[in-house]
Structures are given as structure tokens and as C-alpha cells.
Amino acid sequence: MANPAGNAGFSLDDIQLTAGSILEAHPDTIVAWRLLREVLRRPPDDQDVVRVKTALETNRWMRQLEQAQLPDGSWGRFHSQDTKQKTAFRTTEEAIDRAIALGADPREGVLLRVHQYILEVLRGAARITDRDEKSEAWPLGIRFILAGRLAQLDPANPALIQAWAYLVEVAKQAFQSGQYRLEDEVAAYQHLSGIRWPRGFLSSQHVMWILSSHELPGSLGQDLLRWIWHKPEGMGYLDAPLANFQPRQVGYWLRSMSILSRFAEWKEISQDALNQLWAQRDEHGLWDFGSRIARSVDFPLSESWRHSSQRKQDYSTCILVLLRKTFD
């Protein structure tokens, strides 16, 4: 039996055995795909991985993503919804999150195409179709939003370095008193760019993606994560409290945790919460948070939730993916 990581209340063997029990129940394609690749970490040439990858070609959710993607690689508006248009995805950002939830590979298919689109926009070779927001911070903010999504897909991309360095300076100034102060963050934008950003942006998911792309200096990572962890509203744009897990917000909570897991400090700060989550398994070793969850693109993974067993497999798969990261 593999030893637990740190003070974890579960072992790598526990995680792998649970994943194996779900696979023995012959789950839907997406569930099998994510368990094989992200939990059991099977190689690309593994016969089960090859078989399931072939089955993805006809999967309902994967086909929806592919069919809705536009020739330029986007899914329409990038950040703000066009309410006059009826589309499968409200924004390109939403489609990216859905693709990640389904286990799409950032190096190929729909995510590779949107990755190229984002780079073209950042380089000025393409434009997003969103309307400009009436804020002097909008030009800088939308670049961080685009860069954040690039960091999500390709954290080693050199196009992120400038944004990362800028935001490290903002974070340093925001925590210069020893704790986060909004007025210090606002002053940082004023000093660096001559703009007012009265509500700040440091806690947004986009900034957190960017800052996670390189190791942070000194104690900045610990200061940042502890601040985010205890914010009552959680991470910006996800709005799920991290220290106080709410089952109805499981999709947004898991997505927030996925972002934080890219920081070295994440394991220490999150371990008690992960142990509590592990303890919430049912008598079969699975998780179930019901069908009435906050609307998000994180679920379902299975093509239907007509049977509770499929819902449990979906929840359990996403939680196992997260827990597996504590052993990286």
C-alpha cells in the first residue's frame, strides 16, 4: 500500500483502486477516458486508452464542441455573452472550460485550435468580437483574460512572461503591508499603467492561471493562496468559497481547486479540505452531490444522468482527478 502524501487521509492506492472499480462498471466514454489518462496515468499507447480515444470520436459532448467551434478556432464572443445569439456555448471561455471538463487534450483538436486563436489575438493578428466594456481598465483586463486562458492551456508559452512579471509586481504591492489590501492593488495599477481599477483583478481565475505559470518569488505564493483560500466569495468569476465546501457549487469548487493545484503551496493549505472530501464517500466509495447543482459546464460527463450511478461516476471521476494531484 502506497504511503499517503503528507497528512493525507488517503493513499495513491486508495485513489487507483476507486478508479479501477468505476472502470469495472463500464462507465461512459468520458469517464473512462479521464480515469485512464488523469488518474491511472496510462500511456497513450495503452490498448484501453487507444480504444476509448477512438470512441471519443462519436461521443455526444465531444461532437457538440467540435460542431460549434468556428473556423477561426473560437466559439463566438470570447468573454461576454451575446444574448441575441443562440449558441451551444455562451462564450469561448465557457467552451474551453467544457473541453477541459471532458478531458480534451490541449495539444490537439478543439483546444489546439483555440490556443492558436488566442495567440493570434494577443499578437494583434486577430480580434475578438466582444464589445469593449466602458472601463479604462478594459484593454488591460481583456489581455489578462486572454493570457489567463493561454496559461490554462499552455503554461510554458513565452507569450505569458510579460503578463506574469506585471502581475507579480501588482501582487507584491498588494501584499506589501504583510496582508492583502485592495487600496494597494489599486495603487499598483495606477503606478504601472496610469489606470484606475477600483475593484482590482488579482483574485480572478485569469490572474491565478497566469501567476501559476512560473514559480513565485519569496513568500508571495503562500500569501496569495492563503488570501484566496479564506476569501468568502472564493476566486473571481468562479465565486465558490474554498475553505467552506458547498456541494451545490461542486463544479466551480473543483475548477478553483484545479487552478490552485498548480501552485507549490496548494498541497499544504488544502489537505484538511481534501481529507474531509474523502470522508464524504458513500458505502461504495463514491461521491454523490445530487442532481440540483449550480449550473456549470463541468457536468455531466456521462451522456445522461437518468441513472444515479452515472451521476456518481461523474462526480467521483472529477474528485479522483483532483486528489491524484496531491501525489505529483
Question: Radius of gyration from the CA trace?
Answer: 20 Å
Tell me, what's the shape? globular
Q: What is the terminal-to-terminal distance?
A: 17 Å
Q: What structural class results from the helix and strand content?
A: mainly alpha
What's the architecture in CATH terms? Alpha/alpha barrel
Give the topology, please.
Elements (H helix, E strand, L loop, with lengths): L11 H13 L4 H11 L7 H10 L3 H9 L23 H10 L7 H15 L14 H16 L7 H14 L7 H12 L11 H7 L8 H11 L19 H11 L5 H13 L29 H17 L4
Task: Write structural notes for this entry.
By secondary structure, this protein is an all-alpha fold. The protein has one domain (12-327): Glycosyltransferase, CATH 1.50.10. Helix content is 52%, strand content 0%. The chain has 14 helices and no strands. It has helices at 12-24, 29-39, 47-56, 60-68, 92-101, 109-123, 138-153, 161-174, 182-193, 205-211, 220-230, 250-260, 266-278, 308-324. The longest helix has 17 residues, at 308-324. The protein is globular, with a radius of gyration of 20 Å. The mean pLDDT is 96.
